[in-house]
Write a structure and sequence with these properties.
Elements: H1 7-41, H2 47-73, H3 82-100, H4 109-142, H5 146-178, H6 188-212, H7 231-242, H8 245-275, H9 282-297, H10 300-307, H11 309-328, H12 333-369, H13 374-402, H14 408-411, H15 418-446, H16 452-455
Helix pairs in contact: 1-5, 1-6, 1-8, 2-4, 2-13, 3-4, 3-6, 4-12, 4-13, 5-6, 5-9, 5-10, 5-12, 8-12, 8-13, 8-15, 9-12, 10-11, 11-12, 11-15, 12-13, 13-15
Length: 458
């Protein structure tokens, strides 16, 4: 395998990669934060049925990550492996996202649920999988130097956070701009216009990323580059990754982290609307948290160099968890702001380490096997993200359904049952706290990577 990115191109490639991640996060925020709200309050679909669709789709998602990761690893093109699929899938991603957020109101009820199932899987199981695995694969494909991988992972996390923050703040403004019912952002026209604008921005930023970056690390295979790997070699590479204990632990920890992210992001819209009484406050809830997260990620390269990725990750989990109990025990806006900032700092620290830790593990496994499996290895991040967000949506949706949530009550001016507020608070606050404790135990007592991870600042 090649060594590292040429120094003279590092800033160009890093900048292009970062801008591309803003676009990925912008369009990803649509399903993370607004999809459940759209399905229940605009398309007027049953929250339990939508949650069931998402739950069933997780089965296909788990298979698609491994398949698509393998496809990326065996891709040969003038754009390389990952960059080729980022370019190919950018337009389909934007179009399919528009279709997901346009459930034809005139269609019969059963047909509309089938439509949601098809479009949801088109977006998440297929196209988003290509985008995400390709995006995460870029780090080990751009460099095999542990410190540079950590820095690129940090850049990715910073820009993803920036994209999520901008997406959550700007999307609400776009809904207000495009709505055909003044004072009501939850209309079909509002969502259609906002999704189109977001999709166009994503396409432009993806093209910039592909143009600015290069895949500087070869696969390391001793075979001729034009020759596709045989089935035995593919399976051997797959086993090498899937049987690595630390890789599996990171997948599990990331899976739980993304359940937290989903319940917090989806919960923010419901918490703002039903508990705080103003959906517009979702911008405050997310911007304070993500602003602090973004600020923390600017100092993580220095912390990573001084303490190592492993310790920064652990500290982030602890700080993020510490901000939750206080937030649930006060209604004081200044105090809430402090706890939001604390949680954001923790999020920034641990999330900035995830791509870099995975990249180091992928490179380490590749050195042992003789072939870099960037696609398969990065499928762990993509799979944990999609499964975590999907399961988070399912848990949140079923909790609302069991609590008696009914969007029609809003149109009638009737309050939701008291149990709904309890369910929202449980999903937004207390479930994340429990999961943070589990992550801390897993990573502290079971993750024990030596070698390259220690070189990255430890």
């Amino acid at each position: 395998m090649n060594s590292k990115m040429p120094d003279r191109k590092l800033w160009v490639e890093s900048t292009g990669y970062g801008l591309g991640n803003i676009g990925v996060a912008l369009i990803g925020a649509l399903t993370t934060t607004y999809l459940t709200m759209y399905m229940t309050n605009v398309a007027l679909l049953d929250v339990a049925a939508v949650s069931l669709i998402m739950a069933v789709s997780r089965v296909f998602d788990g298979i698609s990550d491994i398949v698509i990761g393998n496809i990326i690893d065996n891709t040969r093109s003038r754009f390389g492996k990952a960059r080729a699929w980022l370019l190919r899938m950018s337009l389909p991603y934007a179009v399919s996202m528009f279709l997901l957020f346009y459930v034809p109101p005139q269609w019969p009820g059963a047909v509309r649920y089938v439509y949601v199932f098809i479009t949801y899987n088109l977006v998440n199981t297929v196209i988003r999988t290509f985008i995400q695995i390709s995006n995460y694969s870029m780090v080990p494909l751009m460099t095999e130097d542990p410190m540079e991988q950590g820095l690129l992972g940090n850049i990715q996390s910073v820009m993803m956070n920036l994209g999520l923050m901008c997406g959550n703040v700007i999307f609400v403004r776009l809904l207000e701009r495009f709505t055909d019912v003044p004072g009501n952002q939850n209309t079909q026209r509002a969502y259609s216009g906002a999704v189109i604008v977001t999709g166009l921005v994503f396409i432009v930023l993806t093209v910039i990323m592909v143009a600015c970056t290069r895949e500087n690390v070869s696969s390391g295979s001793s075979k001729d580059k034009k020759e596709q790997a045989g089935i035995k070699e593919k399976l051997a590479g797959l086993r090498q990754v899937l049987l690595d204990r630390d890789w599996l632990i990171m997948v599990l920890c990331s899976f739980l982290c993304y359940i937290i992210l989903q319940t917090r992001m989806t919960g923010a819209t419901y918490y703002a609307l039903y508990i705080m009484g103003d959906m517009g406050k979702v911008a405050w809830l997310t911007s304070f948290n993500m602003g602090a997260s973004l600020a923390a990620q600017f100092i993580t390269p220095f912390l990573m160099k001084r303490f190592g990725m492993r310790h920064v990750y652990t500290a982030g989990i602890v700080i993020a968890a510490a901000g939750i109990p206080g937030f649930g025990l006060t209604s004081s806006v200044p105090a809430l702001s402090v706890f939001l900032i604390m949680g954001g700092i923790g999020n920034g620290l641990y999330r900035a380490m995830i791509p870099g830790i995975f990249a180091v593990l992928i490179t380490d496994i590749g050195e042992k096997s003789g072939k870099l499996q960037a696609g398969i290895g990065s499928a762990g991040i993509s799979g944990s993200l999609k499964l975590g967000q999907g399961i988070g949506s399912v848990i949140f949706g079923f909790s609302l359904s069991l609590a008696g949530f009914n969007a029609a009550l809003d149109a009638q001016g009737t309050a939701q049952p008291p149990a709904v507020n309890t369910a929202i608070s449980a999903m937004y606050l207390w479930l994340p706290l429990v999961l943070y404790i589990i992550i801390f135990v897993l990573f502290t007592f079971f993750f024990d990577r030596n070698g390259r991870l220690r070189k990255a600042g430890e």
